[in-house]
Design a protein that fits this description.
With 142 residues, the protein is α+β, with helices and mostly antiparallel strands. The chain has 4 helices and 5 strands. A 5-stranded mixed beta sheet has the order 1-5-4-3-2. A hairpin with a 2-residue loop joins β2 and β3. The protein is globular.
Length: 142
Amino acid sequence: MKKVASLLFFSILLMSAAGAGRARAADATMDAFWDKFKAAVTKGDKPAVFAMTQLPVGMSYGESRIRTRAQFMKQYTHIFAGEVNAVKCFETAKPQVDNGRPKEFAITCPFAKNSGGDEPFVYTFRLTRSGWRFVSFENINE
């Protein structure tokens, strides 16, 4: 009986360690992706940013989803340098993970000019079959 209990305890311990290892691995891949994405936006490397994007890209209320590469390139400035200065924001932004959605993270940013502390711009990223991808941009004030 002791052997069965010990074996059961050991099995549970291994499964717990494996689950924690997967969580740490997901965090590591998320952090690596975020560093790469942030660097591409900082450099203004539109093709690299697009390569880390999943279409269609969700947009704020009233705006059409971005469904093609051409639309993405046309909207790039609006998304990263319009009312928001993503380069400046991304310097210090940290991924925010919602415990209910562990395969997603968000980055929130303020207005480029005098935000008064508000951060209404939300960049959302999701873990897909192809790895982490940028999936939506929204202004939660709209």
